[in-house]
Amino acid sequence: MRRAWLEERTGEAGDPAFEEAFAQWWRAELPRRTFWLAEVGSARSGFTAVGSINVVEIVHMPRPGARGGKIGHVGNTFVLHAFAGRGLPDALLAAAIEHARRRRYRRLVLAPTAGSAAFYRAAGFEPAGEGLLVLDPSTLPAPADAGG
To answer: How much is the pTM?
Structure first.
């Protein structure tokens, strides 16, 4: 699905080493992510993936007087353009929301693209304001060598 996402948006097949990089990512991320896959086809003819979504579980550290709690971060939502109007995006998101209910997440968060923000707002997601900060460590100067 990730390669199909790139091909659909840019027309390029991408990195030939992608599958190996993806397999390494998959092994590292699988314990903390839940994935859903939308497929078309049948047992007889075989199935083809046409969409996916995943949720990363983030467990907050407890503090004195309060339990930690969990949130889910929705990511990598994608449905092939030819299947987007068939209810698959709604079904995938509904599965992620139901998962959040069952896991008792305090909230689901996501960083929508400009084109997907209206879809998420229609599903009940609200802007989170400006409470997030981000840092790209590669933009910082290297620390001075402390030991020589």
So the answer is: 0.79
